[in-house]
Amino acid sequence: MDWLALQRRYPSSSGLTSRTLRLLALQKVLDGTQYDVLPYPFAMERSPAGEYIPLSQRRPSVRTNLCRTVVDEAVSLLFGTTHWPLALSLDAKTALALNRFAAEASLQPCMMQAALWGAVGSVALWVEVISDRASVSVLGTAYLTPEWDRDGTLLSVTERYVVTGRELLANGITPGTGGEETRYWWQRRWTRREILYDVPFPVGEEGKPRIDSGRTVVHGLGVVPIVWIRNPGGDGREPEGECSFEKAIDTVIEADYLLSQAGRGLKYGSDPTLVLKTPDIPEGVARQGGAASALTLPPEGDAKLLEINGAAAGAVLSHYRELRQLVLEQLHGNRMHGDRLGAPQSGRAMELMCQPLIWMVDRLRGSFGHNGLLCLYKMLCHFSSVLPGGLDIGGVRYRDLDPGGLALHWPAWFTADEVELQPLAAGLRTALDAGLLSRENAARIYASAAGITDPAAEWIKIRTTQSDVTEEFGNSDHDG
């Protein structure tokens, strides 16, 4: 069974587009639930009626989840604790405000979740402003439909999916005609001025939707408060980029079933079935388990054990290792084995060993950094200008934040060790003496290599310390 055959088993509701069904199927792979639709466990070889159950109808007992593993590694290297980028700006107040917002709003785990969900092709960030305070929520895009103008600016985003009358009542919404089991279309639309909620209407009763004025919100921000992030690759005119793991799903399915069959075979080898050919044992006697669970066949007096030998088990494991390597090559995953590292490795050595993964994450920095986090920061700067009271960040009001020169400073992939820091410091000193580098950039480069999470704050501390020392010695010289 391949990925196309498995997708055809997923239920599809009327009214859902092929794009929605594809994204929902890819999300199942990311969640590890792609086999839950199959009706039988892997160990169940025969139905209650005695009919053989094909492998394509059985859920594998081993799930490698290699697709999720590679995505998790990429997300950690993209927005992990030591890999979070800092906001830089020509205006020091803007950089301070945006970095403070990232800390106050817990933006790092939010962006990690966005990068995880966005691996299927796209993800959306919804920025809500309540009492001049902004918060960010992550939205899956399977039920979202965006619309752009010719300049690529977002015009609107529509959310549409099916709910039951019971779910509407649980959220305080009285459904229209029909009972609790009636299925309704839920729909809302974000525009540059407001968030429009439609009155839920039963599935099959298509018509012009009616606006629910009681729940419609007028935000008046002048922009759609959603940042749409595409995964790398794909056509820029489409809502999605390429899925990060779709090309390897077939190979992962093959590996899951292979390991499941190998495990089943090893269990048989530990408890083999005894086959007897003799007329002396009545039919149906030897059914107790182990060697007693025998197959009684017509006479001719013979007995043997049905089992798998060690050579076959080794061949299966060797084949799986090849499949695993193929998956990691397709997904640009980390092929480094921890048990092969005899001693702590330097930062440069770690980069060389994880080079394919770094290449992939470098592309993700463009999508989720420049086209995601940076767009979010620019939107916050816009909010600080249109909100009458300014933007409240950590109890401080910021007005008219200037997005000019806004950029992201990414830390080093891996922290350098002492052996690497010494020549780095000497090289930076040489560049400073030659006038090829400013002291601020040299301090940031060294701080990033040393694993300091906030190089900009470290440079401020250095300047403050130098100012204090200069003032102290200057006063002493003057007094003398």
Overview of the molecule:
With 480 residues, the protein is of the alpha+beta class. Among the domains are: 273-306, no CATH class; 415-480, no CATH class. Helices cover 41% and strands 17% of the residues. It is built from 13 helices and 18 strands. The chain has helices at residues 3-7, 18-31, 66-79, 92-104, 107-117, 165-170, 249-270, 310-331, 347-353, 355-386, 418-433, 439-449, 455-479, and strands spanning 40-41, 58-59, 86-88, 122-130, 133-139, 144-148, 154-164, 183-190, 194-197, 201-202, 217-218, 226-230, 273-277, 295-297, 302-306, 391-393, 396-398, 407-409. Strands 6, 7, 8, 9, 10 and 11 form a six-stranded antiparallel sheet that branches. The chain has a three-stranded antiparallel sheet with strand order 5-4-12, with helices on one face. Strands 14-13-15 form a three-stranded mixed sheet, with no helix packed on it. Strand 6 (144-148) and strand 7 form a beta hairpin. The longest helix is centred in the last third of the chain and has 32 residues, at 355-386. The chain is flat and about 100 Å long. The termini are far apart. Residues 476-480 have low confidence and may be disordered. It comes from Asaia krungthepensis NRIC 0535. This is Phage portal protein.
